[in-house]
Amino acid sequence: MGYTFSSGYTVLLLAFGVLPTLYAIFLAFTKGGAFVGFDNFAKVFGDYRFFPAVQHVAIYLVVYLVCLTLFVVLLALVVHAIKVRWISTSIRFLYYIPGALAGASSVLLWLFLLDPSVSPVAFLLKAMGLESFVQTVSIDNLPVIFTVIAFWTGAGGWIVIMYGALNNISNDVMEAARIDGAGPINTARYIQIPMLRKWISYMGIMSLAAGTQLFVEPRVLSQASKGVVPPDYSLNQLAYLFAFRQGDFNGSAAISLILLVVAVGLAAFFVFRGGLFERD
Amino acid sequence: MASQHRRFTGTLALTAGLAVVGLLAGCSADAGPTSDNGFGFAAAEQDPDSSITVWVDAAREPIANAFKEANPDTPISIETYDGNAGGSDSFKTKIALFDQSGEGWPDVVFSTQTNDTSWAAKELNGTQAFAAPLNKGVLDDDFLEGFTAGANDPMTVDDAVYGLRNDLAPVVLWYNQKLLDQFGYDIPTTWEEYEALSDDLAADHPGYILGSVGDSFVGTYVYYWGAQAPIFQLKGDTFSTDFADDHSTRMTDLLDHMVDNGTLIQDSVFSAGFVDYADKLVATPGPAWYSGAVFQNPDNLNVPAGEIGAAAPLYWDGEDKVTGNVGGGVWYASSHSKNLDAVSDFLEFAISSDKAIELASGLPAYTDASDAWLATQAEGGYFVGDFEGSVNTAAGSVWNGWGFPSFSPETAYASVVVPGLAAGKSFAELVPAWETEIKNQAQVSGYTVK
């Protein structure tokens, strides 16, 4: 029976996960079907767009992951501390709603918010010295903009998960902390956050995977800004350009493989540091 | 988290898609076109009942629908896409995927970019060139001879015509006669007079403008191309760009001067903010298609009749009277099409029919159509001055030193110059980074950079 349940997943994993990966590995080390060693990788490393793209994604990941972790944990703790049930439920619902918007449509919504000539929050943008859409989407602002968009669409779901995890902390533990004189801050610091460690690691891995694949947001912004946001901003975009603008599927596969190796390495770090595979 | 899951699934789907098209490419390697069939290339086996798929941008959708209505027996499927506008490369991207899968190509494609021939006429990754040569049997010579001289040159390789020009887009000098009369200015005829006018205007009537540098097509095709600046040149497979040339530096200085005195603005001509200049635009160099897209457009400047006129293009005093060119769409036919008869019927209809003239928003490239279109525009009484003569002059004087490589100059301008200007830098300060970006793009596009 167990095999039946897992077979569907296994078949899909093979068809859409393992086989494409093997095909990408084949492409990355060949050219026109012939083995070329690391030539494709050398070409990618030598491309003038590669390291800026690495830098863009790295800066975005740092800003995004730090903000996500801090605010999700903080907001989950705050919501968990609210004892009035309808307020707590309403807030969780509100947090979750933006996540219902698909990636591209949420970017479209943000296009309006980020354009000072039509934005309902134009006064905020102007207060920050941003008078035009071109100024708003300047390359230095993009990590923050993408972080805001990703947080807005994704954080609600994580807050709800963290809230669930907080509910799982035994009442005895919480009561013991209270009896020992721990206030909300000490309880969070010494009890709740350490016990959320696995969930935070899980969030880190998933968000890291999503973050390294940054594509939809810069792609839509690039088209909307008529190219002011460069079409080669992220690594995934660069892989896309290699494949479809230059017709170089081998170079594209090499970039994908580099991304895979880095993402797996970082995920392993989160898994071991977060004790994700440890049993309580 | 929902978005992560979606993204993860999306990535899986994309990866799987790539794998599948890759496998299909392997399987379908032998299933290509078979014989010449009298079309001058290895065409697919023809089937008169086969439906043709036509890709158009939003502006060309009406003419495609008109063909469908006029030819109810021709099976046709019309799909709209972004028209490859702004160097988006969507045309090339989609064709690359069909090349991989070995099927699915559209039969006719409209592109707003004139430089697609550089890749569409070449075999890519072992797949036959997408664009079909049209003068070897697909279309009659009589029809092909009806184009304005030189209109199809950018799409002609070794005497084979790979695309048909839909419209010409020579740059003229648009002016507002009402404002010129009110301020007592003459229409400038040279770049020097244009710059001098900007000083008078800035001093006496601040707030009024002489154009915009906020669009990548304006900066490149209107100003630098019109100034004969050799910043985008192609000779064989050798690409060169020379920002130190006298023509380039003079235009750079002119633009910096006019941005400084406020007569050149940074808003895109299609931005929400540009509409505010409806009664502030005294003159501007711009393509012929500004007539419908900017001046007579209720969503843009919407200037009343009797105010706007087109004058002959600006040129450097004492030099050749040449001008720039902003696009001019191109129709391509697929070399994979199974119904080239229907394709040729469609192309002739879209380019030279009465309906095409009626629906044209810019100067048609087909002589009969352009004569009729110009006459209609002139008779309409909207434009002042010698509209017909000026546009004709411009159409015959596009500078032929500009190149058509497989990448667009617009992307470098958009990513380097537009944000640089917004950050307060001058053209002169931005030129080194701009030049580097253009050269880098040429290099990764496979050209030898000089």
From TrEMBL, chain A:
It is a multi-pass membrane protein. The chain crosses the membrane at residues 12-38, 58-81, 93-113, 144-166, 199-216, 253-272. GO terms for biological process: transmembrane transport. GO terms for cellular component: plasma membrane. Its main location: membrane. It comes from the Bacteria. This is Sugar ABC transporter permease.
UniProtKB/TrEMBL annotation, chain B:
Keywords: Signal. It comes from Glaciihabitans arcticus. PANTHER family: ARABINOSE-BINDING PROTEIN-RELATED, DIACETYLCHITOBIOSE BINDING PROTEIN DASA. This is Carbohydrate ABC transporter substrate-binding protein. It comes from the Bacteria. Residues 1-31 form the signal peptide.
